[in-house]
Amino acid sequence: MKLLEIQSSVRLDRSISRALSHEFIQAWQNSHPNALHKQQDVGMHPPAHPTELWTTANYLPPDSRTPEMETALAASEQLIEELLWADRLLLGVPMYNFSVPSTFKAYLDNIVRVNRTFAFDSANFTFKGLAIGKKALVITPSAGDFAPDTPMGSLNFCETYLRSILGFIGIEDITIVAVPNQFMPDEIRQQSIEQARAKLMDLATTW
């Protein structure tokens, strides 16, 4: 079993997604002692945004790219190989302004690439995900409660986007553990953390 952990919070010590991810990984490794684990921290080390050269290179066959184009795509290629290596993805993705952190969006822009993580049939205008056979677990703290049946539910572009973009590249087995109400009084905040922790500890033995 191979686990890729991707963290996108810009916080370190006060990050709920990082803390819960750490606890989950420890419990998961106890249940999977031979598992391999890699971490990609795009919160602390965001990948570069695509450029014009990057985009041009992306849509050319590999044998048509110049050395400069290969260099422009090198970091993206490394991130994709890392993604394809993994059987399990653990994503720490706090909600920022109703959606994902910009650091994580930059990561996605580097890994969602034609003929690498998805295929496109121009004759029928259909798409097919290539990053198949994986499971994703997402830990997503938020300031308030953005569950679908709440007044703020329609503003939850974080969860809907994650399900859509991961599904697009072939990752359809997605579990999201929300950690709401992190801007609420401490008692409510801690209750949400404990509920998320309990779910994660259950998942550590079955996921």
UniProtKB/TrEMBL annotation:
The keyword NAD applies. Its EC number is 1.6.5.-, 1.7.1.17. Binds 1 FMN per subunit. Its cofactor is FMN. It comes from the Bacteria. Gene3D superfamilies: 3.40.50.360. Keywords: Flavoprotein, FMN, NAD, Oxidoreductase, Plasmid. SUPFAM superfamilies: Flavoproteins. It catalyses: 2 a quinone + NADH + H(+) = 2 a 1,4-benzosemiquinone + NAD(+); N,N-dimethyl-1,4-phenylenediamine + anthranilate + 2 NAD(+) = 2-(4-dimethylaminophenyl)diazenylbenzoate + 2 NADH + 2 H(+). FMN binds at S9, S15, I16, S17, M95, Y96, N97, F98. Residues 1-200 form the Flavodoxin-like fold domain. Homodimer. Also exhibits azoreductase activity. Catalyzes the reductive cleavage of the azo bond in aromatic azo compounds to the corresponding amines. Quinone reductase that provides resistance to thiol-specific stress caused by electrophilic quinones. Belongs to the azoreductase type 1 family. This is FMN dependent NADH:quinone oxidoreductase. The lineage of its organism: Bacteria, Bacillati, Cyanobacteriota, Cyanophyceae, Nostocales. The gene is azoR_2.
